[in-house]
Each structure stands twice: as C-alpha cells, then as structure tokens.
Amino acid sequence: KQEVTQIPAALSVPEGENLVLNCSFTDSAIYNLQWFRQDPGKGLTSLLLIQSSQREQTSGRLNASLDKSSGRSTLYIAASQPGDSATYLCAVVGGSYIPTFGRGTSLIVHP
Amino acid sequence: EAGVTQSPTHLIKTRGQQATLRCSPISGHTSVYWYQQALGLGLQFLLWYDEGEERNRGNFPPRFSGRQFPNYSSELNVNALELEDSALYLCASSLEGADYGYTFGSGTRLTVV
C-alpha cells in the first residue's frame, strides 16, 4: 500500500525566502505525481504535474522535481509572498489510478 | 471551460438522516473520484467511478455509496449520518488513464448535528 509523507508539517517564514517542501512515497512504481495548493476550507488547486518519465516541472516561481528511485519529490518556491500562504499537498498515482495524498505542509508567509 | 462543480456548497443534516452530494466533471472527463477530508485529517479516498461503473472504493462503510450518470456527473449518498461524517467532501475528475492529472472541485461542507 502506497504511503505518502510530507515534511515539514508546518512552516512559517518571512516574505522573500526561498522554500523547499518535501514529499516522500514508499512505492516507486508510480504513474505520476501532482502538487496541489489548498486554501482553508476550499478545494484543491493543481500546481504542477510530473509524469513518471520526467525529472522536473516548472511554473513561474514554482519548481517540482521527482526522483522515483529514492521515492521523493521536492516543491521549490522562489521568493515567497504572503499570497503563497496555504496548505500544499502532494498526490502520488500508481497503477490503481487512485491518487494517494500526503497530510500536507501548512505554509504561512508573513510580511 | 468550466471546472469541476460541486453542489451544494454547504449542507447541514441531523444525525440519522441521509445526505446527497453532487459533482459535475470537466467536459470530456469520464472518471470521477470522491474524497473525504475531515478536520485535521488528510484526504481519504472514498469512491471512483468511470464510464458509469464503480471501479474502486476506499475503506468506508457501505452507507457511503454513489453512482455515475450517463453524462458522467456523479452523486455521493451518505445514509444514516453520524457526527463523524462531518467533513469537506471533494470531487475530482480526470481523463481516462490520468495522463493529464486530476482536477478538483471546491467541495461540499457537510455538517452533521
């Protein structure tokens, strides 16, 4: 059974810092990995999707990497802003086509 | 292009009643997934429908059920509501094979009193 762990569980930083959020998974036979953002009480917004054959994806200030062999993905946020405050979730998809989620990293960026 | 839409946004029910939640996927998406997100917990997989069939279900009791209609919209039914069913229920849709990832709706907040 796939297990997904996200570290750290919570993070509070001043505006402008570069951040690294980590996601690890136990079964490396994945199909893809997707990073989401969730604002309090809201749905999930997709940030980046990495296929198993890819090593990284970039969108604006966000960069996600994938290392299947070590069972890890990293979400890098450059020059953080207060508007980046949210919970960040990673979801791993294997042959079952059912996303398995980590518990998330709760991020607060203060001015 | 419209995203995944869920209704109602909020639902308040009394313990023992039934709740019905609805989800409309993105046009062209045939798969619909339901997740439960209770306060302080992660997203727990409930049900997966594709092409009108239930493909898989998570570790939830049978009083959680649903269906998918010919237009690929879906309904989640929760019978004999219990207080611990209070949660945010999220629906996601995808194309067959999930090559393009999953798109989530804004959720239905179910409160059982």
Summarize the structure.
Chain A is mainly beta and 111 residues long.
Task: Give a written overview of the molecule.
- The complex is a heterodimer of chains A (111) and B (113).
- Chain A has 111 residues and is an all-beta fold.
- The relative contact order of chain A is 0.34.
- Helix content of chain A is 0%, strand content 59%.
- Chain A has strands at 4-7, 10-14, 19-25, 30-38, 44-51, 56-59, 62-67, 72-77, 86-94, 100-101, 105-110.
- In chain A, strands 2, 4, 5, 9, 10 and 11 form a 6-stranded mixed sheet that branches. A 5-stranded antiparallel sheet of chain A has the order 1-3-8-7-6, with no helix packed on it.
- Chain A is globular.
- In chain A, a hairpin with a 5-residue loop joins strand 9 and strand 10 (100-101).
- With 113 residues, chain B is mainly β.
- Chain B is built from no helices and 11 strands.
- Chain B is globular.
- The mean pLDDT of chain B is 95.
- Classes of the chains: A mainly beta (111), B mainly beta (113).
- Chains A and B meet through strand 4, strand 5, strand 9 and strand 10 of A and strand 4, strand 5, strand 9 and strand 10 of B.
